[in-house]
Design brief:
Residues 341-449 form the RNase H type-1 domain. GO terms for molecular function: nucleic acid binding; RNA-DNA hybrid ribonuclease activity. This protein is of the alpha/beta class and 489 residues long. 51% of the residues lie in helices and 8% in strands. It has 3 domains: 39-138, no CATH class; 150-288, no CATH class; 313-480, Ribonuclease H-like superfamily/Ribonuclease H (Nucleotidyltransferase, domain 5). It has a 6-stranded mixed β-sheet with strand order 5-4-1-2-3-6, sandwiched between helices. Bound molecules: zinc ion.
Length: 489
């Protein structure tokens, strides 16, 4: 079973076997000690068996304890019981795990504490961990990360970042990234040079800190880190140094960047796509922002709405004037690089006329994703033959580009142009910027689009599933959309 978990974790399948970079024992260490906190099943099983032994000692009058005692240790105590020729499988297993109680007993007396541990349920809570710790103290595992102080792990797991970012940092600090330098060390024949600069060996230090391209990414990040002045020859030392120097929010930015660098490196190697350093930095930042917005803000907003018992529309979303419709647009970037749009078209009284989700592939830049959203909105507006509409987006760049009639020499420039023309031909229509909180319904829908892409809801409110986060989505949508009727404006 552990083997299966291990294969799954490292991404192996029946067709391909991936390198398992880190020992299973190490992965099973608690997260705060540098592991991933996986259960070592053998130890877990032993801990469960040992609880049975503990119960026999503690509840000698129970039927099980009496039967076992009569059969296997009539004259001794449980801890003195010896294996016998014909034992049941259950008893053999319980007896086998009794070493833990003996050790625990010795350990507690040895530390000078009260022998009254039998009154204590330390075994229930700590048996498993104790086994892992004892085994660890007998086996010395010299890995590079064992030198890392434990506070780095505590800092890492406390960050409010997408799990893929923190897991990536964990792998990086454990030298479990498939850089060619590591493969070379494992004796696998390959060209070990960096595929970007062909100047140096592709080590994790080079890829993430030392390569000119990586330095540009860090410099383009919101922290504007200049690695030309970096004194560290080792990636782990640098991360440790940074984590100890900077505030919480900056640590989150630092944690986002290596994932972006690695993602871009894979695009280069496997798809020959060369992302500009600026874009990599933007994507990493956008992913972080999106994660934080959805994980903190949505929860807070829903909580706030529930606690105040507000039954009115979201106070931040403002309805359009009578006779004019409003379409809100939200964009969402999925973890596998797809853009989703959520569109909600409403009347002056807040009731919804239509809602839709759309899926786009092939773009990474955040502005492009937001622009796709307003393009989808225009498609919907034209399809429904609407001429008086306010389009609302929370992307300032996109909104201002339309408002100021900028000519953008990027692929999304065409979308801006399309809106400029529409607004020119429809003088009762306009575009406006709204804060993210005022655009929740569209955002929730954009996220929901991962489940139901390219779907239209006409004269009906989207009904979402019963999962955890989607039920909060339903709450938000439900509060913003009033029931529909057949009126038309
Ligand atoms: Zn390089």
């Amino acid at each position: 079973m552990e083997k299966m978990i291990c294969h799954f974790w490292w991404g192996s399948s029946t067709d391909s076997r991936k390198v398992h970079w880190i020992k299973w024992q190490k992965i099973c260490k608690p997260k705060r000690n540098g592991g991933m906190g996986f259960r070592e099943l053998r130890a877990f099983n032993e801990a469960l068996l040992e609880i049975q032994g503990w119960r026999i000692i503690n509840h000698p009058s129970s039927l099980v304890a009496q039967v076992l005692k009569a059969k296997y240790f009539p004259k001794e105590q449980f801890l003195q019981a010896k294996p016998k020729q014909q034992m049941s499988y259950t008893w053999r297993s319980i007896l086998k795990a009794s070493w833990i109680i003996k050790k625990g007993c010795y350990w507690t007396i040895g530390s000078g504490e009260d022998v009254d541990i039998w009154q204590d349920n330390w075994i229930h809570q700590k048996g498993y961990q104790a086994i892992i710790n004892w085994e660890e103290s007998t086996v010395t595992t010299a890995t590079s990360s064992s030198a890392m102080p434990t506070n780095i792990w505590q800092m890492l797991w406390k960050l409010n970042v997408p799990p893929k970012h923190s897991h990536f940092i964990w792998r990086l600090l454990n030298e479990a990234i498939l850089v060619k330098g590591n493969l070379f060390k494992k004796g696998i024949r390959c060209d070990p040079l960096c595929p970007r600069c062909y100047n140096q060996m592709e080590t994790s230090h080079h890829v993430f800190l030392d390569c000119v391209w990586a330095k540009q990414v860090w410099f383009a990040s919101p922290l504007t880190i200049n690695l030309n002045e970096c004194q560290f020859a080792n990636l782990n030392d640098w991360v440790l140094h940074m984590f100890n120097q900077i505030d919480h929010a900056s640590k989150e930015l630092i944690a986002a960047t290596p994932y972006g660098i690695w993602y871009a490196m894979n695009l280069l190697v496997f798809q020959e796509k060369n992302l500009p350093p600026n874009d990599v930095s933007h994507i990493a930042f956008a992913q972080l922002q999106e994660f934080q917005r959805h994980n903190v803000k949505t929860q807070n907003i829903v909580k706030r709405n529930l606690s105040t018992g507000s039954s009115s529309n979201n106070t931040c979303w403002s309805p359009p004037p009578r006779g004019i419709l409003k379409i809100n647009v939200g964009a969402h970037l999925s973890s596998d690089g797809h853009w989703f749009s959520g569109l909600v078209l409403r009347r002056w009284d807040g009731s919804a006329i239509a809602a839709a989700t759309r899926l786009r592939t092939g773009s990474e830049a955040i502005v492009q994703g937001e622009a796709y959203g307003i393009n989808d909105a225009l498609d919907l507006v034209e399809k429904l033959g609407i001429s008086k509409v306010i389009i609302e987006s929370d992307s300032q760049i996109v909104v201002n580009s339309v408002k100021e009639k900028r000519s953008i020499r990027r692929s999304w420039g065409k979308i801006i142009q399309r809106w400029i023309v529409f607004l020119r031909n429809n003088p009762h229509s306009s575009i406006s910027w709204v804060k993210w909180v005022g655009n929740q319904a569209a955002h929730v829908l954009a996220k929901w689009a991962e489940n139901e892409p390219n779907k239209d809801w006409m004269h009906t409110v989207p009904l979402f599933g019963r999962e955890n986060h989607s039920s909060t989505s339903a709450t938000v949508i439900g509060r913003e959309l009033k029931p529909l009727d057949d009126r038309t404006d």
